[in-house]
Amino acid sequence: MQSDISTEQVFRSPWPATIISLTFTAWTTHLFLLYSRLHWRVLFSPRTRDIDAQVRSELFGILSGLGWCRVGSVLALVCAIWALQCRPRWPGYVALWFALIAVLEAIIIM
After folding, report:
1. pLDDT tens digit string along 72-87?
2. 30 membership: H or E segment, kind and range
3. Helix 66-84 vs helix 53-64: angle between axes, to the nearest 10 degrees?
4. Do the Cβ atoms of 85 and 16 come closer than 8 Å?
5. Which residues contact 103 (CB under 8 A, 6 or more apart)?
């Protein structure tokens, strides 16, 4: 019983790389939204010194994980470039567009 799909055809498909890239982009966007929501809450507090303990612990937890936002955006970009190497190319272009948005979000957080 031979399979109809060869291993080379599976690795030449753009869909796995596109799905991985979009997943990393969604993860990066989620981290960006968590950071921005907390950033505005801290920014508009009456006094920065008087931030309650819950907000302070949440702030330090998110700030310690911001490196993962950069990692996610780079991985999204690498997978999008990988998807562009395959045929059809349009999923790679879609993944590249969203990966560039993830890179922009990582640059904004810096």
Report:
1. 999 999 999 999 998 8
2. helix 15-43
3. 40
4. no
5. 73, 74, 76, 77
In contact, 95 and 81? CB cutoff 8 Å: no
Residues 12-39: pLDDT tens digits?
Answer: 789 999 999 999 999 999 999 988 887 7
Query: Which CA distances in Å does 32 have to 17, 27, 63, 95, 104?
Result: 22, 9, 11, 18, 10
Half-sphere exposure of 17 (CA within 13 A, CB side): 26
- Nearest one of 93, 74, 73 to 83, comparing CA atoms: 93
Structure tokens at 12: 């030449």
Buried b / exposed e over 1-20, threshold 16 CB at 10 Å, is eeeeeeeeeeeebbeebbeb
Contact 83, 21 (CB under 8 A): yes
Q: What pTM did the predictor assign? A: 0.79
**Class of residue 24 by CB neighbours under 10 A (exposed 0-12, middle 13-18, buried 19+):** buried
